[in-house]
Amino acid sequence: MKTNPSTELPTPKGDRDLSVILVNYNGKDIIERCLDSILENVQEINHEVIVVDNHSTDGSEALIQNNYSQIRLLCNSDNLGFSKANNQGIKASQGHYILILNTDTYVPSHSIKALLKLMKQNSEVGAVGPALLRGEQDYQISFGGKVSFFSECAKKLFLNHYYRLKLRKDLSERDVTWLSGACLMTRRDILESVGMFDERFFLYFEDIDLCMRIKEQGWRLVYFPAAKIFHRGGASTELNKLDSRYHYRKSQIYFYSKHSSSLSCVFLKLYLSVHFVLGVFQGILGKKDDLKRRIRFFRLLGFKG
Description:
Blueprint: E1 16-24, H1 28-41, E2 47-53, H2 60-67, E3 72-75, H3 82-92, E4 95-101, E5 105-106, H4 111-121, E6 125-135, E7 138-139, E8 143-144, H5 149-169, E9 174-175, E10 178-179, E11 183-187, H6 188-194, H7 206-216, E12 220-231, H8 241-259, H9 262-285, H10 288-300
Parallel strand pairs: 1-2, 1-4, 2-3, 6-12
Antiparallel strand pairs: 4-11, 5-12, 6-7, 6-11, 8-10, 9-12
Helix pairs in contact: 1-2, 8-9, 8-10, 9-10
């Protein structure tokens, strides 16, 4: 069914134990494996699965309609972005617990049950995330602490490599500041309290922003590696990397304006100025279309959060 994105959907109150929300955008090659793994894992849970399709053009909408009658499909007439589409799914859902899940994931046996059990047994936990892996021992950095320009530099230069090695051996549960939105379980009443996803984030940083607002209300955020989810990462953005980087930087600047110090914001914009100038020179030497896209980056430096 086509859904008018401007229509406010009422929030049903807890008719299901769990609602699994997925946002799809041209994910035909990956979504079947994801949906099959979800359905195998939730058979003993009073659940619903909702897919919000952001105007896919690859036939994935028809694939879901024709092969997954048990899944509710909401189809948009435009690409609304990750935050707005997730909010749309949440508003249409009925679960006490909400699982936000990317379509480029695969859910091994018992992982969803393990996340749900932890939430039910720990009333002070506001959100929980599993270990995310690309392969059996290839851990992703799916949680973290306070985000600033300096902490991001340290992570990209050397800390991410260190943590990936450490996560192979350290499987302990821990409290964190943020969790990846590739697989994030929380409670409906918490989402309603904090205002759900900030829809000014089209793509990227919306999960960290949401987690920080949950934490600010006094809830614990828990990284729980006893549950594991395989995550390909970047599947929906691979075909248009320049647009993806544009949205990343736009969201990054907005996020810093909300949560980081003025010093971090200054250093970020200085870094982006140099980065974008180099990008424009590369564009001049390359395709004209690439140059036009890269010039858009400059406008972000005057972006007001």
